[in-house]
C-alpha cells in the first residue's frame, strides 16, 4: 500500500457511524485537496482483508454515487439507514450527517 492509500483509508476509517463525508472532504482531510477522483479510484483498490465503511462516502452534493435503483445504490442506502442516516431520493443532508455538521451547528446554530 502506498502513502496516498494509507492516508485516504485512514480518513475513511475515521468516519464515525451515523456520519458521512464526500470524496472531496476525504481528499482534503488526507492532505490531498482537489483529489476527489483519486479517493474514488483508491476505494476501488482496497487491499484484500481490509474492510472500509465505503457506504459513508458520498458525492459533494450528498448524493449516492451509484446509479439509482442499482444493487450498490440499494445496499448503500440500506447501510446508511441502519446507522440512522437519513437518505431521501438517494441524497443525505450533509448539514445534518456530514462530518462537519456538529461544528456548523455549534457555530451557527444549524439543525
Automatic annotation (TrEMBL):
Keyword line: DNA damage, Methyltransferase, Transferase
Gene3D superfamilies referenced in this protein's UniProt entry, alphabetically: Winged helix-like DNA-binding domain superfamily/Winged helix DNA-binding domain (1.10.10.10)
Keyword Transferase: yes
GO annotation, biological process: DNA repair; methylation
DNA damage as UniProt keyword: yes
Molecular function terms, GO-annotated: methyltransferase activity
Organism: Dyella soli
CDD domains recorded: ATase
Domain Methylated-DNA-[protein]-cysteine S-methyltransferase DNA binding residues, every copy: 3-85
Recorded superkingdom: Bacteria
Name of protein: Cysteine methyltransferase
Amino acid at each position: 500500500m502506498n502513502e496516498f492509500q494509507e492516508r485516504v483509508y485512514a480518513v475513511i476509517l475515521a468516519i464515525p457511524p451515523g456520519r458521512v463525508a464526500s470524496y472531496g472532504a476525504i481528499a482534503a482531510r488526507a492532505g490531498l485537496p482537489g483529489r476527489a477522483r483519486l479517493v474514488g479510484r483508491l476505494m476501488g483498490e482496497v487491499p484484500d482483508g481490509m474492510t472500509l465503511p465505503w457506504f459513508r462516502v458520498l458525492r459533494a452534493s450528498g448524493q449516492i454515487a451509484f446509479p439509482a435503483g442499482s444493487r450498490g445504490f440499494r445496499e448503500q442506502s440500506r447501510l446508511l439507514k441502519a446507522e440512522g442516516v437519513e437518505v431521501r431520493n438517494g441524497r443525505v443532508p450533509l448539514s445534518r450527517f456530514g462530518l462537519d455538521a456538529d461544528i456548523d451547528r455549534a457555530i451557527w446554530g444549524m439543525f
